Amino acid sequence: MRSIAKIIYKSLDWSIRGRFPEEVKKMVVIAVPHTSWHDFYMGLLFRSIIGVQINFLGKKELFKWPFGWYFRKVGGIPLDRFNKQNKVDRIAEMFQEHDIFRLALSPEGTRKKVEKWKTGFYYIALKAGVPILPITMDFGKKEHRIGNLFYPTGNSEADLASLIDFFKGVEGKIPENS
């Protein structure tokens, strides 16, 4: 599968810049910007090429027949959005339940243009005691750029400003939503 992913990725003229810290078994991976459904398969191609396990969350309705088996197979975890349990707490618990748990999240929380990121990813990492790894989904440059591991300090304002700065100038598949 990895060699097929490499062929597709190269034929699309994409590249990867940076090094994925595969020795780190638990982290929150933020992929920005999230502007299109194309981000999903580009993320799967990226993950196949670097050869690491990265999970993602999806609304539980996606995990029903006929596609549920596929989403689970590619690392998806169903999330009940209507469960009364605090989602940050529940997701942070997932890090304790797995030996390897790299969770990909989109800080925008939607494919539409947003003025401000949702902060759940930050508080999940903080509560779970894991770093955040920023990765671009730059359709303008056709590259995934891997940043440095970022360890949240608890000063959310300063930490978020630093993370947001990493993504300046990055263009999504639908640029007006970037």
TrEMBL record:
Presence of keyword Acyltransferase: yes
Keyword Metal-binding: no
Entry keywords, A to Z: Acyltransferase, Transferase
GO biological process, one term: phosphatidic acid biosynthetic process
InterPro entries: Plipid/glycerol_acylTrfase
Recorded metabolic or biological pathway in which this protein acts: Lipid metabolism
Chain segments annotated as transmembrane: none
GO molecular function list: 1-acylglycerol-3-phosphate O-acyltransferase activity
Domain Phospholipid/glycerol acyltransferase stretches: 28-140
PANTHER family hit by this protein: 1-ACYL-SN-GLYCEROL-3-PHOSPHATE ACYLTRANSFERASE, PHOSPHOLIPID_GLYCEROL ACYLTRANSFERASE DOMAIN-CONTAINING PROTEIN
Protein name, entry field: 1-acyl-sn-glycerol-3-phosphate acyltransferase
Species this chain originates from: Leeuwenhoekiella aestuarii
Origin organism lineage: Bacteria, Pseudomonadati, Bacteroidota, Flavobacteriia, Flavobacteriales
